[in-house]
Write a structure and sequence with these properties.
By secondary structure, the chain is mainly alpha-helical. The chain has 4 helices and no strands. The model has no long low-confidence stretch (mean pLDDT 83).
């Protein structure tokens, strides 16, 4: 597959610096970078809310508080007891 890309000056310099440091052809470096991005499962369509939900779920924060389902109304009772 042939891919053509245009990079801004900063990214272009970083890529050239990486090529010089690794002593590899540019095509090989670009292939490795793309393969890592694909393997990491980057979701281009993930919204900010979906990202937050994914992170909270991965950290075990979803469902960590037991309540009556009305925490937006009576959260103080659950956090600090009856006042």
């Amino acid at each position: 597959m042939h891919i053509e890309a245009e990079l801004d000056e900063a990214r272009s310099q970083r890529l050239i610096s990486m090529q010089q440091r690794l002593q590899k052809p540019l095509t090989e470096i670009a292939t490795e970078i793309l393969a890592k991005a694909i393997d990491a499962g980057i979701e281009a369509n993930e919204t900010e809310g979906q990202k937050m939900l994914r992170i909270f779920s991965e950290e075990g924060l979803i469902g960590c508080i037991h309540g009556d389902g009305k925490l937006s109304v009576d959260y103080k009772e659950h956090l600090w007891g009856n006042e």
